[in-house]
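hey m, so remember when u said the tokens were messed up on ur end? i reran from scratch. heres the input so u can diff it against urs
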Amino acid sequence: MSEHINTTSAHSPKKITAVTTLTPLDIIVQNLNASISNNGHRNTISYATSALNLLFLQQTMDLLDARAYAYSMQGQPELAIKDANQIIKYSLTSTEGYLRKANIFTMYGKQAQAIEAYKEGLQNTTPGKEQQISIEQMEKGLVEAVKQNKVQVDFISKLPTDIVNNVIMPLLSPSTNASCLAVSKLWREVLIGCSSIWENLSATEDNPNSIRLFNMIPSAGPHVKYLTIDTNVSAIHTDCFDL
């Protein structure tokens, strides 16, 4: 079963250009030009090296961000998160990696992880004019993630009956199925209608779940093909034999 992706929450990466100009780079370039004009060769080497490192770093981060976005849109969240973490590793105080990481988690409905990513970003990023917009995005994203994390979705009532009966329920243990009977009237009706979980019914343990399953025989009886009962279990109600 493919994983659901909420692509409406995804924000596109930056457009990749040949050169990305940053405010720190502008300062270095100004100093570099001054050194060249003054024949300050030692400083020229130093400033040129710093500029090259900055250019390489930002371009690498932009490319990783673009790839992380593409991975997330193609249903490959693990690879997307790996790239986002690499961005963070390159620049711990930049908002870029944290925003991408949180956005990926949000796309895949993992709000708790998104909350952690936003909190990590707000704690580690450096405040400043250059990052103010991104910091505000993280703050708003955190509020929304906390809000969404409180919303509980009843997938049993939302998913098609065929998927519930043929994919989900057969994977659950008998004790889990018994617990599901007590969730709601709707869940109870869905479970009773799922023939596969009743074909081989066993009531051999003196515990609430085993007894709960046994007490469902009057309702689920038509689905039962094999029934195992431990008559030494005192809590089994004999009136359940009147099928």
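this time it looks ok to me. The CA atoms of residues 65 and 229 lie 59 Å apart. if urs says something different then somethings off w ur setup not the seq
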